[in-house]
Structure formats: structure tokens, C-alpha cells
Design brief:
Blueprint: E1 9-18, E2 23-31, H1 40-50, E3 58-65, E4 71-79, H2 82-88, H3 91-97, H4 108-119
Antiparallel strand pairs: 1-2, 2-4, 3-4
């Protein structure tokens, strides 16, 4: 079944122009009666043509499908420039749309274990961990 060809209607409400953050923000209602859901990427491209802007200046998030399907509601931000988006948008949302790269780091548990191991050492040499144990 070709989901892309099924009709999708976008309605915006609670439209606010936020000059301080350089963006337009709104609640988006998506009507998709014959589809399960609509991808955020597709919503970004439809909003871009609706508001005559570039797709990489749009961020959509927080979509919830109503019980019974056919309608989803979420939030959209349309930034005035890509630079404004990079300044004000949270990093994890930039990573989602491909505008930034994810920072790879050790897992939370590993970071806590490393911190607690370093607490047992005295002095300034706290690079890796306990090299030798103290004799009593």
C-alpha cells in the first residue's frame, strides 16, 4: 500500500511570531484518515511549502495520535534562518533532523563508576584508577 499518496491535511493554530528567538511557533493538526501516521520528515516538507521556507529551518516535535487514529497534533517551529535554529534549538532535536552530529560518550553507568573509583584515590594522579592498593 502506497502511504505517501494518501491525502494529508495540515492545519495550524495558536500561531505566534517569536521575534526574540527568531521563529514562528504553532500547534499543527494533521488529518490523515486513511493512514496510520505521517513522518516528521514529510510534515517538515509540507510545512516548508505551506510557509514558503526551507525544510532545514523547520523543527516539528511532540506529535500524538488521537485515539481511533486519523488525527495527530504536535508542535512546529519555523526559524528565520538556519543560524537561528542552530543557536536556539536543543541539540538532540538538531541531531534528529541531521543538522548536528551526536556527541559520543561513555554510558551513564560507566561515567558514575569512573567517578566513584577516582574518589578512592588521594592526591593529583587520578587519571585511570587504582594502580596499587595501600598497605596497612
Amino acid at each position: 500500500m502506497a502511504d505517501r499518496e494518501q491525502p494529508v491535511t495540515l492545519r495550524t493554530r495558536k500561531f505566534i511570531r517569536n521575534a526574540l528567538l527568531g521563529r514562528k511557533q504553532m500547534v499543527v493538526d494533521v488529518l490523515h484518515p486513511s493512514r496510520a501516521n505521517v513522518s516528521k520528515d514529510e510534515l517538515r516538507s509540507k510545512l516548508a511549502e505551506l510557509y514558503k521556507t526551507s525544510k532545514d529551518q523547520i523543527s516539528v516535535f511532540g506529535f500524538r495520535t488521537q485515539f481511533g487514529g486519523g488525527k495527530s497534533t504536535g508542535f512546529a517551529l519555523i526559524y528565520d534562518s538556519v543560524q537561528a535554529m542552530k543557536n536556539f534549538e536543543p541539540h538532540y532535536r538538531l541531531v534528529r533532523i541531521g543538522a548536528a552530529t551526536k556527541i559520543e560518550k561513555a554510558s551513564r553507568q560507566q561515567r558514575k563508576q569512573r567517578k566513584n573509583r577516582s574518589k578512592t584515590l588521594r592526591g593529583t594522579a587520578k587519571t585511570k584508577g587504582p594502580a596499587k592498593k595501600k598497605e596497612k
